[in-house]
Protein backbone atom coordinates (compact mmCIF):
# COMPACT_ATOMS: atom_id res chain seq x y z
CA UNK A 1 0.00 0.00 0.00
CA UNK A 2 1.32 3.43 -0.95
CA UNK A 3 1.83 5.80 2.00
CA UNK A 4 1.15 9.53 1.70
CA UNK A 5 3.30 11.81 3.87
CA UNK A 6 1.25 14.47 5.64
CA UNK A 7 1.35 16.81 8.61
CA UNK A 8 -0.97 16.18 11.55
CA UNK A 9 -2.84 19.41 10.68
CA UNK A 10 -3.35 18.22 7.10
CA UNK A 11 -4.76 14.89 8.27
CA UNK A 12 -7.12 16.67 10.67
CA UNK A 13 -8.40 18.88 7.82
CA UNK A 14 -9.06 15.83 5.62
CA UNK A 15 -10.86 14.02 8.45
CA UNK A 16 -12.99 17.14 9.11
CA UNK A 17 -13.85 17.41 5.42
CA UNK A 18 -14.88 13.74 5.32
CA UNK A 19 -17.02 14.16 8.45
CA UNK A 20 -18.78 17.22 6.97
CA UNK A 21 -19.36 15.50 3.63
CA UNK A 22 -20.89 12.45 5.31
CA UNK A 23 -22.90 14.21 8.03
CA UNK A 24 -24.01 17.43 6.31
CA UNK A 25 -23.40 17.59 2.56
CA UNK A 26 -24.61 14.09 1.64
CA UNK A 27 -27.95 14.36 3.54
CA UNK A 28 -28.52 17.88 2.16
CA UNK A 29 -28.06 16.79 -1.44
CA UNK A 30 -30.33 13.77 -0.90
CA UNK A 31 -33.03 16.15 0.38
CA UNK A 32 -32.47 18.43 -2.64
CA UNK A 33 -32.89 15.49 -5.03
CA UNK A 34 -36.11 14.38 -3.30
CA UNK A 35 -37.46 17.93 -3.43
CA UNK A 36 -36.57 18.28 -7.12
CA UNK A 37 -38.25 14.94 -7.89
CA UNK A 38 -41.44 16.26 -6.31
CA UNK A 39 -41.55 18.99 -8.98
CA UNK A 40 -42.44 16.45 -11.66
CA UNK A 41 -40.82 15.81 -15.07
CA UNK A 42 -37.15 15.00 -14.39
CA UNK A 43 -36.00 15.28 -18.01
CA UNK A 44 -36.33 19.08 -17.96
CA UNK A 45 -35.76 19.67 -14.26
CA UNK A 46 -32.56 21.73 -13.86
CA UNK A 47 -32.70 21.53 -10.05
CA UNK A 48 -32.74 17.74 -10.21
CA UNK A 49 -29.80 17.56 -12.63
CA UNK A 50 -27.77 20.06 -10.58
CA UNK A 51 -28.45 18.13 -7.37
CA UNK A 52 -27.46 14.82 -9.03
CA UNK A 53 -24.25 16.41 -10.32
CA UNK A 54 -23.45 17.71 -6.84
CA UNK A 55 -24.21 14.27 -5.38
CA UNK A 56 -21.79 12.70 -7.84
CA UNK A 57 -19.06 15.14 -6.79
CA UNK A 58 -19.70 14.54 -3.07
CA UNK A 59 -19.68 10.75 -3.44
CA UNK A 60 -16.47 10.91 -5.48
CA UNK A 61 -14.77 13.11 -2.90
CA UNK A 62 -15.90 10.82 -0.05
CA UNK A 63 -14.48 7.80 -1.90
CA UNK A 64 -11.21 9.65 -2.52
CA UNK A 65 -10.86 10.66 1.13
CA UNK A 66 -11.79 7.16 2.35
CA UNK A 67 -8.97 5.72 0.25
CA UNK A 68 -6.35 8.33 1.18
CA UNK A 69 -6.88 8.76 4.95
CA UNK A 70 -5.96 5.16 5.90
CA UNK A 71 -2.77 5.48 3.82
CA UNK A 72 -1.52 8.68 5.46
CA UNK A 73 1.84 8.64 7.20
CA UNK A 74 1.88 11.54 9.66
CA UNK A 75 5.24 13.30 9.87
CA UNK A 76 5.82 15.26 13.10
CA UNK A 77 7.56 18.36 11.73
CA UNK A 78 7.94 19.85 15.22
CA UNK A 79 10.73 17.33 15.84
CA UNK A 80 12.68 18.38 12.73
CA UNK A 81 15.38 21.03 12.61
CA UNK A 82 18.46 22.02 10.67
CA UNK A 83 19.29 23.94 7.55
CA UNK A 84 18.66 21.12 5.08
CA UNK A 85 15.39 21.10 3.15
CA UNK A 86 13.11 18.15 4.03
CA UNK A 87 9.40 17.43 4.30
CA UNK A 88 7.73 20.06 6.50
CA UNK A 89 10.35 22.74 5.91
CA UNK A 90 9.53 26.39 5.30
CA UNK A 91 11.94 27.40 2.58
CA UNK A 92 12.64 30.96 1.52
CA UNK A 93 14.05 31.26 -1.97
CA UNK A 94 15.18 34.21 -4.08
CA UNK A 95 14.95 34.10 -7.86
CA UNK A 96 18.49 34.88 -8.99
CA UNK A 97 17.27 36.72 -12.10
CA UNK A 98 14.39 38.83 -10.76
CA UNK A 99 15.36 38.97 -7.05
CA UNK A 100 11.78 37.97 -6.15
CA UNK A 101 11.65 36.34 -2.73
CA UNK A 102 9.09 33.68 -1.87
CA UNK A 103 8.54 31.34 1.05
CA UNK A 104 6.98 27.91 0.66
CA UNK A 105 6.19 25.10 3.06
CA UNK A 106 6.83 21.63 1.64
CA UNK A 107 4.02 19.29 2.67
CA UNK A 108 1.96 16.35 1.38
CA UNK A 109 0.18 16.35 -1.96
CA UNK A 110 -3.30 16.16 -0.40
CA UNK A 111 -2.76 19.19 1.82
CA UNK A 112 -0.76 21.47 -0.48
CA UNK A 113 -2.29 24.85 -1.34
CA UNK A 114 -0.21 27.21 -3.46
CA UNK A 115 -2.43 30.17 -2.50
CA UNK A 116 -1.39 29.67 1.13
CA UNK A 117 2.28 29.15 0.32
CA UNK A 118 2.37 25.38 0.67
CA UNK A 119 3.60 23.10 -2.09
CA UNK A 120 3.48 19.35 -2.58
CA UNK A 121 6.56 17.27 -1.84
CA UNK A 122 6.09 15.83 -5.34
CA UNK A 123 6.08 19.22 -7.12
CA UNK A 124 9.05 20.05 -9.38
CA UNK A 125 10.07 22.93 -7.10
CA UNK A 126 10.03 20.79 -3.95
CA UNK A 127 11.89 17.97 -5.69
CA UNK A 128 14.61 20.43 -6.72
CA UNK A 129 14.89 21.85 -3.16
CA UNK A 130 14.86 18.59 -1.14
CA UNK A 131 18.26 17.80 0.33
CA UNK A 132 19.68 21.26 -0.37
CA UNK A 133 20.88 23.77 2.25
CA UNK A 134 20.83 27.49 2.92
CA UNK A 135 23.07 29.26 0.41
CA UNK A 136 22.67 26.62 -2.30
CA UNK A 137 21.78 27.71 -5.81
CA UNK A 138 19.19 25.40 -7.35
CA UNK A 139 17.99 24.94 -10.93
CA UNK A 140 14.20 24.60 -10.91
CA UNK A 141 12.36 23.34 -14.00
CA UNK A 142 9.66 25.77 -15.13
CA UNK A 143 7.31 25.98 -18.14
CA UNK A 144 9.30 28.89 -19.60
CA UNK A 145 12.64 27.17 -19.00
CA UNK A 146 14.73 26.39 -15.95
CA UNK A 147 15.06 29.10 -13.29
CA UNK A 148 17.87 29.51 -10.78
CA UNK A 149 16.90 30.21 -7.18
CA UNK A 150 18.99 30.59 -4.06
CA UNK A 151 17.86 29.14 -0.74
CA UNK A 152 18.09 31.93 1.84
CA UNK A 153 16.32 30.35 4.83
CA UNK A 154 15.05 26.98 6.06
CA UNK A 155 12.92 26.56 9.18
CA UNK A 156 10.67 23.94 10.75
CA UNK A 157 7.59 24.12 12.94
UniProtKB/TrEMBL annotation:
Necessary for efficient RNA polymerase transcription elongation past template-encoded arresting sites. The arresting sites in DNA have the property of trapping a certain fraction of elongating RNA polymerases that pass through, resulting in locked ternary complexes. Cleavage of the nascent transcript by cleavage factors such as GreA or GreB allows the resumption of elongation from the new 3'terminus. GreA releases sequences of 2 to 3 nucleotides. It holds the Pfam family GreA_GreB_N. GO terms for molecular function: DNA binding; RNA polymerase binding; translation elongation factor activity. Belongs to the GreA/GreB family. Residues 82-156 form the Transcription elongation factor GreA/GreB C-terminal domain. InterPro entries: GreA/GreB_C_sf, TF_GreA/GreB_CS, Tscrpt_elong_fac_GreA, Tscrpt_elong_fac_GreA/B, Tscrpt_elong_fac_GreA/B_C, Tscrpt_elong_fac_GreA/B_fam, Tscrpt_elong_fac_GreA/B_N, Tscrpt_elong_fac_GreA/B_N_sf. One of its GO terms (biological process) is DNA-templated transcription elongation. Residues 5-74 form the Transcription elongation factor GreA/GreB N-terminal domain. Keywords: DNA-binding, Elongation factor, Protein biosynthesis, Transcription, Transcription regulation. This is Transcription elongation factor GreA.
